[in-house]
Structure formats: C-alpha cells, structure tokens
Amino acid sequence: MALRADLLPALAAFESAARHQNFAHAAEELHLTASAVSHHVRKLESRLGVALFQRHARGVSLTAEGRQLADAAGSAMADMESVVRSLRVARTEQDRVHITTLHSLTYTWLQPRLPQFAALHPHIRLTVDTEVALTRFDEGGPDLGIRHGPGHWPGLTAHHLMDDYLFPVASPSLPGVDAVRDPAQIAQLPLVSDLARQGWHDWLRAADVHGVSLEERYRFSDSTAALNAAVHGLGAALARDKIVTPYLAAGVLVRLPGPALKARWGYYVVHPAHKRLKPAARTFIDWLLALPTDDTHA
C-alpha cells in the first residue's frame, strides 16, 4: 500500500499513542481529544488491515505489528526532527553576524550606534568579539572585523570606514590645566600615553612645538585605559577623536589648545577575500559604511 498524505495525521497520532502507551496522553501532546486519537488509530488499522493496539480495561498496549510500525515511525520522526532542528540552526546562523573589533572603538563609537541598526534590522543577531589578540578569519571564525591600520592586510578585503585624528585632552580638575593657553604649555603637564604608533612627539611637532622635554608619566597598552587615567586626573592624554567623543560630551575631559593631527592609520571594515559574505554580514557592512563619520576638526 502506498503511503498517502491523508494517512500522515493518523501516523502522527499513532506514533504519539505508541510512545505514551496511552491515548489520553497522546491527545494532550497533540492538542486533540482522546476520541480523535482513537479515530486516527482505527483509520490506520483499517487501512493496514492489522490491529496495532490491544485494548483492555487498563488501557492499551502494542501488538507485534504495532511495535514494528512504532519503531519505524519513531525513527522517522526523530530523523525529521533532527533535520528540522539543523535547518532552524542554519537559518539562525545565517542571521547572525560575528564581528571582531577593538574594545575602545566598540565601547565609545560602535555600541551607541547599534540601537539604530537593531531598529532597521531586528532579525539580525550580532556577536561582537573584542579580544586584544588579532583574530584569525578561519572557518567558523568571525564574518568580518573593524581594524585600525594602514588599510591593507594579506587575504583580507578592506573598506575604508573613517579616518582618525589626534588631539590633547585632560580632566578639567587636573592641576594647571586652567592656565594652559598654547600647545607648548601642555608639555609642562604630566602626560599619559598609550602604545599607538603616533604619540606626543608627533603631535607636538605638528603643533610647531620643539625643544621641550616630555614627561610621559603613565603609559597604558589600551587607549580606553589611557583616557580613563586622564579622567582621574593623572595627566593630559593624546586622544583619538572617535574614542574620546563621549568623554567630551559628558564633560569629564576637555580638549586642550592645539591642532587635530590626522593619524597615519584609519579604521577599516575587513573580511576574508576568499569567502562569500552571507547577506546579514553584507547588510551590516553597508550600514557601517553609510554612517556619518563627522570628520570635521578645527
């Protein structure tokens, strides 16, 4: 007998009843009545010409033929559930974008803008990795990254996101900061630095300040840590404009006199050149590249 589509509800009812050995429990699972489950089972028995259950006062139990069909139906249902689960996971992964980026940029620039992305694309899920170590774009790794650098990396496609600018900032409570009127006087303050390729010597040269000795009293490996040190009054810091904006807006740091020096390196969105981007990752890149960068500096 060919398996017809009209038998599928009956098979589903039988599989549940066989698993529970109880029509009422099967009915509860399937949101049916016990009599509906019984009707489906009898329809299946009539089509097959065999009894699938022995009915007695204490309930029901499978016949030998019923056990044979129950084993096959249970295996088929398990296989289908496994496929459905894998399809659902695959669909979820298609809608998830794994991003590797910088902690400092994530905290001060990216996170404040993510609500806008979520409103535009509520189905896309983001995983943001801010590990200090340079992440590899291996199989199963990030879909894309935001990097600070020269704009070219082997094996990666790079899209210019925005430029970077450096200028000095300090806490308004830092002793002596109120008296600073020109860049040369900044060199007399205790200075905070990070491990960036451009630092105080580069900025003072751009500000036309020469022949001064610098006291870099504190040095941090992370730009955010350097800014926080300035917030706590440890000294003046050379800030990156995209990172320092929320500190200036909150008034915990103030910009000191002098030019904004365009950094040799900028920010880039990167992804493996050999892999095709999934649609959700392409959507996130397009959104990033369309953001206003506010590159206006006095």
From TrEMBL:
Residues 6-63 form the HTH lysR-type domain. GO terms for molecular function: DNA-binding transcription factor activity; sequence-specific DNA binding. Keywords: DNA-binding, Transcription, Transcription regulation. It holds the Pfam family LysR_substrate. The keyword Transcription applies. The keyword Transcription applies. One of its GO terms (biological process) is DNA-templated transcription. Gene3D superfamilies: Periplasmic binding protein-like II (3.40.190.10), Winged helix-like DNA-binding domain superfamily/Winged helix DNA-binding domain (1.10.10.10). CDD domains: PBP2_GcdR_TrpI_HvrB_AmpR_like. InterPro entries: LysR-type_TF_proteobact-type, LysR_HTH_N, LysR_subst-bd, WH-like_DNA-bd_sf, WH_DNA-bd_sf. It comes from the Bacteria. Belongs to the LysR transcriptional regulatory family. This is LysR family transcriptional regulator. The lineage of its organism: Bacteria, Pseudomonadati, Pseudomonadota, Gammaproteobacteria, Lysobacterales.
